[in-house]
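Support request, please re-run this one:
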Amino acid sequence: MSGEADSQERELKFPCEGLDGLRDRLIELEAERLQPSAFEENLLFDRDGELQKSDSILRLRIDSHGTRLTFKGPATFEGDVKVRREHEIKVDGADQARALIESLGYQPVARYQKYREEWQLGGVLIALDHTPIGDFAEFEGDGAEKVAQRCKCDPDEAERRNYLQIYKDYRETHPDAPADMVFP
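Re-run finished. Output below.
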């Protein structure tokens, strides 16, 4: 395992009516495009609901960067900005990582997919996410509020839920939706 990171995640997330307008605004602001839209698969694990009860997440992500295992602690808010302790490591293989996680008694409890395009402006990472239930923009890093405002996103309208919570609420109004947030 390599690529270890331990930090505070500082994030604002917004639902979007399409991503083209925000993409155009990022170009206008001369943001740097880090990655074109790429598919991402995410598996969330838990053991007898202990992580859910503590508002924590154990996630295995497979994307164009490789495979990463991430733990996110409980969320707090500084104004509108969601702040979480985050531990993340890059792993050599998803199957081996999953076997290790399951050996510790954790089981997959949710799966979600998205296409993510990454930009950077003023040290803030901007992710444009296309999901099976709509589009979202995430602003992550110190200064996320200021960059979001420059992109015409109002921090007071930031989404406080994570994708798992958003999808759970979505399924309440869309009972025919699949158990996991995946593309057809």
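Residues 2-173 form a domain with the Hypothetical Protein Pfu-838710-001 fold (CATH 2.40.320.10). The CA atoms of residues 53 and 74 lie 10 Å apart.
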